[in-house]
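WARN retry 2 of 3 for item q-0093 after timeout on previous attempt; input resubmitted unchanged.
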Amino acid sequence: MKYYKTILILCAVVFSSCSTIKVTTDYDSQVEFTKYKTFAFFKPGIDKAEISDLDKKRVLRSIEAKLLSKGFVKSTNPDMLVSIYTKSRERVNVNRNNIGIGWGFGWGWNPWMFGPGMNMNNGVNIAQFTEGTLFIDFIDKEKKELIWQGIGTGALKIDNREKKEERIKLFVNEIIS
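OK item q-0093 returned
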């Protein structure tokens, strides 16, 4: 029974680690952020993002909703421009867990013997996933300078449209929060 609890805890850790988003932010410490009240999207920057147009719309809608909830106003003459950039890469996690090593007797096959023998669980867990990174930039419109950047990196889950929208909202909320 203790062995099954260990496996359950290990699975929970592995699956929860895929759902987390690592967020970092950087900003210009000389900038007075309270002077920014309005925003608009910076189309030339957004056009360079390497995601589908549908996903761009999802990201921009999420950013807009988050900024509106923080008191910003969308404007044709903004104080601040908002741009995004994306990148992704395939990742493979290989974890060796000595908890899973054990010996047992039973029927099996290996190149040297067929029949009863010993079996050793090597405790290696392999997970392959796509890791995505979303950069959200706030740019001073007057000075044309980057004033704030938020970066979110995490596993992408693209099983269906609803889950994709949910994941994008989570990325944006975590970054801008």
